[in-house]
Design brief:
This protein is α/β, with parallel strands linked by helices. It contains twelve helices and 14 strands. The longest helix has 19 residues, at 301-319.
């Protein structure tokens, strides 16, 4: 092992895996360990990680616990939703979008504490190892990264538990039956993998879901929300101004109560594995529908269509861990410039798992009732102009048909 590593910054949750990693780093590299625990809105207390780290000999000055909820939504989630981003037509990228911020803080703390390396608990089969490390190298090209799951032989929970017992690592023994799922949560979503989900034919058990009621059990009365937008971001709900994190927290609660945001998909991981996962993204599901609605009346047609063409590429960039890449930054600049006119209010109706847009208005609206009406428009639109428009667009089709020898209607004998 490298003798040049004297201090490592570890992404630390306080759970079994990262507690074992903390001790393994000390044993393997004979180094000091700095722990970093991020509160991204996962819904669980993060302060217990401080006590756990102290129990394992980490001094106070080497324990970093940070509330990053506002930064997460403001600087990562909101910019992503300005692009109406979904991966492979369904996934709202709840896990993917959290990793760039964690990577950023890992390397920043490494610089602050004069650490030589960073470390994480992502496995060698998943996407997260790629996301953490691409982010770290983009921001600190000379940083060293230690990925224990690619080095050690502790490849089962039983081996981890044995290692913890042998070295007297304090592991909380939770009462009740352990969840069979691997879960990851932040303010945007909660994900479920493993256990019975490894069979793609097996329906997710009803008791698995934590953030939402089933659509069948949702209220029989619809819930309406008015979402106010400024430059593509929600700034108020029902007239009440809210911060980015407050917006997403509120939408999660209301959406979950109405059965909104459940998803069961098989996705293609960057490392080449097909993975089945279930997700709850109530707030994000509402945000996506509403943002497309406000853009529908404020964006020029070609701008909107170009955004839609580029979105799959943008989504793949984020999914694969290239948030800090020049191509993402280039696309983000273009996307953000399109949002100057995306202002106004969208009214959504939530009912038994559905999100319906039932109203939209904007001071920048391009919707002209005088032109769009089916009634007499007073000459705002000359329908006779359509004749030349159609014939010009048909010119190449008529030329091609004649070239192929088509001189009569296909249906004629």
């Amino acid at each position: 092992m490298s003798s040049s590593i004297d201090k490592v910054v570890l992404a630390y949750s306080g759970g079994l895996d990262t507690s074992v990693i903390l001790q393994w780093l000390k044993d393997t590299y004979d180094c000091d360990v700095v722990t970093f625990t991020a509160d991204l809105g996962q819904g669980e207390e993060v302060e217990p990680a401080r006590a756990k780290a102290k129990q394992m000999g980490v001094p106070d000055e080497h324990i970093f616990i940070e509330d990053l909820r506002e930064e997460f939504v403001r600087d990562y989630v909101f910019p992503m939703f300005r692009a109406n981003t979904i991966y492979e037509g369904e996934y709202l990228l709840g896990t993917s979008i959290a990793r760039p911020l964690i990577a950023k803080r890992l390397v920043e703390i490494a610089a602050e504490t004069n650490a030589d390396a960073i470390s994480h608990g992502a496995t060698g089969k998943g996407n997260d190892q790629v996301r953490f490390e691409l982010g770290a190298y983009a921001l600190a090209p000379d940083i060293q990264v230690i990925a224990p799951w690619r080095e050690w032989d502790l490849m089962s929970r039983e081996k981890l538990m044995a290692y913890a017992a042998e070295r007297e690592i304090p592991i909380e023994q939770k009462r009740g039956k352990k969840s069979p799922f691997s879960m990851d949560a932040n303010l945007l979503h909660i994900s479920y993998e493993g256990g019975p989900l490894e069979d793609p034919w097996t329906e997710p058990p009803s008791e698995m879901w934590r953030w939402s009621v089933s659509p069948e059990a949702a209220p029989n009365e619809a819930t309406y929300l008015d979402l106010s937008y400024e430059q593509g971001d929600i700034v108020a709900i029902d007239g009440v101004a809210m911060s980015p994190a407050e917006v997403l927290t509120h939408l999660n609660a209301v959406g979950g109560a109405n059965g909104v945001g459940r998803l069961d998909i098989v996705e293609n991981r960057f490392v080449g594995i097909k993975s089945r996962g279930a997700y709850e993204t109530p707030g994000g599901t509402i945000m996506l529908r509403a943002h497309r609605a406000i853009e529908s009346i404020t964006l020029d047609r070609e701008v909107a269509h170009l955004k839609d063409e580029l979105m799959p590429r943008y989504a793949t960039i984020i999914y694969n861990g290239f948030w800090w890449s020049p191509e993402r930054e280039m696309l983000q600049g273009m996307i953000d410039s399109s949002q100057d006119v995306v202002n106004g209010t969208v009214r959504v109706k939530l009912y038994k798992g559905n999100v319906d847009v039932v109203g939209r208005q904007s001071p920048n609206s391009l919707f002209d009732e005088n032109i769009a009406t089916f009634e007499d428009d007073g000459g705002a639109y000359d329908q006779a102009d359509a004749d030349g428009f159609i014939k010009l667009n048909a010119l190449r089709l008529r030329t091609l048909a004649k070239n192929r020898g088509v001189t009569h209607f296909y249906g004629e004998d």
